[in-house]
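Record type: monomer structure entry
Structure origin: computed from sequence
Chain ID: A
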Amino acid sequence: MTQTAKNVLMITESPFPEDTRVKNEAYTLAEAGFRVVVIALNFNQRRFMETLRGVDVYRLPMITIFKKSSLKKKRFSFLLYRLKSAVGYILEYIYFTLASFLLSQYIAFKQGVDVVHLHNPPNTLFVVGLYFRMLGKKFVFDHHDLAPELYLSRYKVGKDMLYRLLLAEEKMCLKLSNMVIATNQSYKAIDAERGRIDPQKIIIVRNGPDPQRFRAVPPDGQLKASGRIILTYVGVMGPQDGVDYLLKALHHLVYERGRTNIYCIIVGPGDALDDLKNLAESLYLNEYIRFTGFIPKADLLKYLSSADICLDPNPSSPLNDVSTWIKVMEYMAMGKPVVSFDLKETRYTAGHAAVFVTPNDTRAFAEAIMNLMDDPAKRAEMGRVGRRRIEKELAWEYSAANLIQGYEKLTGRVLYTSPSIV
């Protein structure tokens, strides 16, 4: 590919610009000289097409087929939930893949496509990548989630036929792409082994936050005036994300340890949200927590600035053990101490900015929160350590440099080497 290669088409089954990783990559490439178009899902009734910071965004209508979450333990209910979820995801993924393919034809006709950059899930998007490769274009696979491990972690199942199908799709993405983007070293190792591809084909672009945008703002006055210790969780809430573990830890903290001077802000959307609200009610936690759902960035910063302790309850699972969570780095960027289960990549990310406890042990999680509640000096020092690590090692500017280098190698173009942090 020559110096004329300049048109990048990104496809993501997530909202834009709400998806931080996709937003950061799209803006970085646009600032480096590419013309970037993003096909995304329409979330929150945004416009079908708009231009944001030089990036053209097209949004496809979101469809939801069947509820995807259940915390019920009864066998029949769980089996029915698994069946409905599988059918729902398959139909939604087929819809998004076909709609993206059709829209990509319009974009290719209108302005051309030199690189198609696909963010998973779904891995069914490999058919779009294959189509453009057959036309002589470049295909980038941006590996957000290990779909087979996500399936195992979400549904607590064995390696059945659906697992093998997900594995086959993932291998197609890895083998057909010209470049693979992994989020950490664990993903890179898995991609190289599973796809049987040259590790030189894989670059690591971590989910680094922007320390200029993630910094303290005036806290929520009402929360701080309450005199309580403010706990905060930020993130998507699916069955595999561990917010149920968090709620059980809070129950232990309040009703077994008598620590009623807490208030927990739980921020984010997710298909487990309704079930989690029901669980919180059954655990008599309603006066100690607030579910906010999706909120604007300004409100997110306000709640994070109000927090005394931030929480990452992702349990140990085939997916979580090797994944990097952007919320942990956002907590660190805000100078907040973190309590987390002891997972490999989380320990690498947070280091001394977090207290790590035995995976999936909700009592240990609660005890760690309590110990930090009683030690404000330690909280402050952990916050300083985390902020410093983001500024010196993990901020988006360092990830952006890797992305630019990968695209230079992929396209043969010399790009602007100092894109601003997004």
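Annotation 1: The mean pLDDT is 93.
Annotation 2: The longest helix spans residues 75-111.
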